[in-house]
Amino acid sequence: MASSAGGGGITVPASWFGGTPTLAPGQIELAVVSSLPATVTGESARVEVRGVQAGDTVRVERNGTDVSGTFSPAGPGVLGGVVDGLRVGVNDVTAIVRGPAGERAATLQLTDHPITGPVISGPHQRPFLCQTEAAGMGKALDADCSAKTRVDWWARSAVTGRFTPLTDPYAAYPPDTAMTTTSTGATVPFVVRVESSTINRSITRVAVLDDPHA
């Protein structure tokens, strides 16, 4: 992450994701929140600008090109957006903030890697056995075990505690579907969205609560 100080303005709370301290009034911070700066993959990264206050204008650049249009409010004093079009290798992402606290700028270097890798493991070893079929993702599309991204929904039973796949997530949920409480205090059906994809010859799964009926 990168930061720049200015004078005056609001105080922005500490970042729970990056573990960064509370920002002083007028200070801004630029951070990538989708991965470490040195391990970006797939030509895109989610980035946040923290410390934005009323009256500020924010410009975000990728290697000198304006990409501000993808950014929107992501919390008190925070703008977030996906920076895409990264080139393989080192990229400079810069935030320039102008407002009551003056002009502040911060630049963060992101190192992008091909989605097929390698990222941190060194040159690919061969031969390599792909497991996409065993994982329910179909036959690998290439020698790097790439597979089409798949999304499934599962409902948890209040009776057995087990998860049942939903063939049609927009149809009525099973009558024994459990309810759960989110971190914001909302009570929602215990339905989980699981996205399966491949990165660096490995299978990744991301699971989140998701109510398609909402």
CATH architectural grouping of the largest domain:
Sandwich
Overall shape: it is flat
Major sheet strand order: 1-2-4-8-7
State the major sheet: 5 strands, antiparallel
Quote the beta fraction.
Answer: 35-45%
Spans of at least 5 consecutive residues whose pLDDT stays below 50 are none
Termini gap: 36 Å
Q: CATH top level of the largest domain?
A: Mainly Beta
Give me the secondary-structure category: mainly beta
Total domain units: 2
Radius of gyration: 21 Å
The name of the CATH topology of the largest domain is Immunoglobulin-like
Summed over residues and divided by their number, the pLDDT gives a mean of: 91
Count of DSSP-assigned helices: 0
Reading the helices and strands in chain order gives EEEEEEEEEEEEEEEE
Look at the structure and name the CATH superfamily of the largest domain. Immunoglobulins
**Fraction of residues in helix:** under 10%
Quantity of strands, as a count: 16
